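Hi there, hope your week has been kind to you so far. Would you mind checking whether the C-alpha cells look sensible for this chain? I owe you a coffee for this, so here goes:
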Amino acid sequence: TETLTGTLIRGGINCTITIRNSKLVGDTVIEGALNTTITLENSTIEGRLMGIDLETNNKLYVRGKSLIKGQNAAIRGAVNAEVEIDGGEIIGVIKGIDGNNNLKVRASNALIKGEHAAISASTNSRITLTNARIEGKIAGIDVGNNARITGSGGHIKGENNSLKIGRNAEISLSGTKVTGRKSIGRNSNVVGL
C-alpha cells in the first residue's frame, strides 16, 4: 500500500504501465500521456480526485478483483480512450467512467457506478457489456450522438434515466435488465428494450 499526495504515477508518451496485487492511494493515482497502455490486475486504485486519468489514445485493461475509485471520476478518458474491464469494480463519486469523443468501453462481469452517471461520454461511444452492472443516480449511461451500445445479461440502472442517449444511436440489448426512464435521441435503432 502506498499513499501520497499529488499524482503517484505519470506515464510518458507510448509508455506501458502494469500494476499487480497492489493498493495505491493519491490525489490522482495514474496519469497516462499520449498512447499509454495501463494494465491493472487484482489491485486497488483510490484517487482523492481521480483514480486514473487517460489522455488521447490511451488503453486501460482492468483484470481480476481490481477496484478503481475516484472523487470526480474513477476513470477519465480523453479522445479515443479504450477501457476493458474483466471482473473489476469502477466506482466514482461523480462519474464511474467519464469519457470524451470515441470512448470504447468493454465490461464483463463488472460493476461500474457513479453518482451522476456510471458511464458518461461525448459522441461516437462504443460500449459493450456482458453481465455487467451499470448504476448511476442521475443516469446509468449518458452519452452523446452516434453511440453504439450492446449488452448481454447484466443490469443498467439509473434513478432518473437508465439510458440518456443522443441521436443516431444503435442499441442492442439481450437479457439485460434496464431500470429507470429511457431518453433516446431521434433516428436511433433500438433492439431489446
Observations:
- Residues 105 and 127 are 5 Å apart (CA to CA).
- The radius of gyration is 16 Å.
- The chain is about 0% helix and 65% strand.
- The first strand starts at residue 2 and ends at 3.
